[in-house]
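Pipeline run #58 for the internal structure catalog. This entry was flagged by the ingest filter as a single-chain record with no existing model, so it goes straight to prediction. Upstream metadata was stripped on purpose; only the residue string is passed forward. Reviewer on rotation: M.T. Logging verbosity set to normal.
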Amino acid sequence: METPGSSGEYPLTTTPLSDAAAKASQLDPEFCDVRGLDRLFGIKRSLGYTLLAEGLIESVSLRRRGQIRGKRLFNVDSVRAYLREQMANQKRKQAS
């Protein structure tokens, strides 16, 4: 058991994480809401719903029976797949 130092506080046993390390250590989400789309990918609400309507990304709507409003969650893997596809298309266009 550690004993307090001369100031009465226990010494730190670990170094605090930098901001970048703290963000990297967070769990990778499987789903995100509209705010998460913006935070993770810079995709705003209207573009997110347009991509969804065109079938380019996937989502699920959580809603209680009989309720009009619910919560829409977007599948992060489908968004990443869409972005990878867009990058590949751009590289093909640049190469030709």
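catalog note: Residues 29-62+70-95 form one domain.
catalog note: The first helix runs from residue 19 to 24.
status: ready for reviewer M.T.
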